[in-house]
Specification:
The protein is an all-alpha fold. 98% of the residues lie in helices and 0% in strands.
Length: 94
């Protein structure tokens, strides 16, 4: 009788351990499935995000270049104006 109780206790311990291990594995599988779903979603959105980033970078660079062009254009106009004033002053002096 005592041996039977010992066997039942041992069997119960093994069952509890098995159920615990099974629950842990099941949790890991669920976590892996969630991670996979997240990664799939990110991979689907990746190309779109890259396109958006490229468009933004292009727009930023275009704006920067336009500002630089305007600055250089204005600078040339000022230089030209200054040269014309010098020429006019020289003409007046003559």
């Amino acid at each position: 009788m005592k041996k039977k109780q010992e066997q039942e206790a041992e069997l119960k311990e093994k069952r509890v351990a098995f159920e615990k291990e099974f629950a842990e594995r099941e949790q890991k599988v669920k976590e892996s499935e969630n991670e996979l779903a997240t990664l799939r979603l990110q991979s689907e959105q990746f190309e779109q995000k890259i396109e958006e980033a490229v468009k933004k970078a292009e727009a930023d660079k275009e704006k920067q270049l336009q500002m630089l062009f305007k600055y250089e254009k204005d600078l040339k106009a000022i230089e030209s104006s200054g040269k014309m004033q010098v020429v006019e002053r020289e003409k007046i002096k003559e």
